[in-house]
Every structure is written in C-alpha cells, then in structure tokens.
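Marked as duplicate of an earlier ticket. Keeping the data here for the record.
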Amino acid sequence: MVQKRLQTWIDSRYENPRGIVGTYIGEKMVRQHRVEVDWTIEQLQIQPNDRILDVGCGAGDALAQMLRGYNHVHVTGLDRSPTIVRSALRRNRTDVQAGRANVVEGNLGTLPFPDVQFDRVFSIHTLYFWDDVPAVLDEIECVLAPGGLFVITYCDGKGDGTWDGIASIVREQLIPAASALGFIDVQERRGPDSRDYHTVAVTGRKPV
C-alpha cells in the first residue's frame, strides 16, 4: 500500500517535475520515451539550417538526438519546470556553449519567442496537459515561419485499449483548431508502439 501511494505521488509530478524527484522523473522519461523521440524526429523532416523548437522538452533528450544527427541546425527547448530545464541544460551543455542550442523556462500557453522564429515545432507527451488546446496551437502558429511544420506526438491507448478522452481532444479540438488556423496537410499518423502504448502524432504545415 505504501509503495502504491508513493508511485501515485510520483506519477502526479509528471506535469511539472520538481526537486530531486523531478530530476528522477526527467531521466526516467528519457529512458521510457526513446521510441517516440526517434520517430517524432523522423516526422519533422529536418532540413539544413532549420531552427527547431521542442515545446515541453523534458530533460533535453530530443534536443541531444537532433544535435547528434544533424550538423547545421539550431534547437531550442522550452519547459515549465526549472528542475527539468536544469537537466536539459546539463545534457546539452556543450552545444549550448557553442550556440547550437538553447533551453528556456516558460509556459507553452504563452511562448516567449518572436513570431516566425522556427521552422519546426514539436511536442511529445504534453497534449494531455494543455488547458486550452486552440490557444496553445495558436501560439505554435505564431512562432512558426511560413512553410514550417508542427508535430504533436502523444499516446491514445495501450494494448487493446483506447483512451477515449485523448482521442476526443484530438478529434474535437486539436485537428479542428489546426484547420481553423489555416494549417495545411493536417493529418494523424500512427507510429510504433512504445512499451505497448500506441504512438500517434498530428502534423500540419503553415502555408508559405
């Protein structure tokens, strides 16, 4: 019973990890989410000199993967948790010092960046925490450059089960909001299962 209560308490900290437990959660997510990270990076269709934003970057693993895989890109990570931002900065310290990467603390509801700043914007496993889906997507549209691509990756079930709640958010809020904002080629893409969880992404492109 004590162990179950402890696990429930830890799980409740995933939205905004803090302190020593927050650092542990950040590193745990790095280990757990490698399949989704690698697949999401493939969906970004990264080009030389792209400026890329990871919204809810966690401990900075996706940033590190892109920096290792692509020489001529600049990546920025944003997370609301100061604990996680410190982890992401540590993981990418060399590239931050070299000017290839940046990690900032901030809220995805009010992205602290100029308009048309990025060529690619993505987010992995944050959709569950979006209080206002159209508003967050509007922020993404503002910071995307014309021709830019967004990828929102999430899970909508595990094993034989489907999570109707997240499927409903995507169907009734995310996709309609993307279309209303003028994004083109908006579509759902099925990815590889990760630890038996169903990986999905909604992608769209800002018109030139």
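See parent ticket for discussion. Strands lie at 51-55, 74-79, 101-105, 118-124, 144-158, 161-162, 184-190, 197-205.
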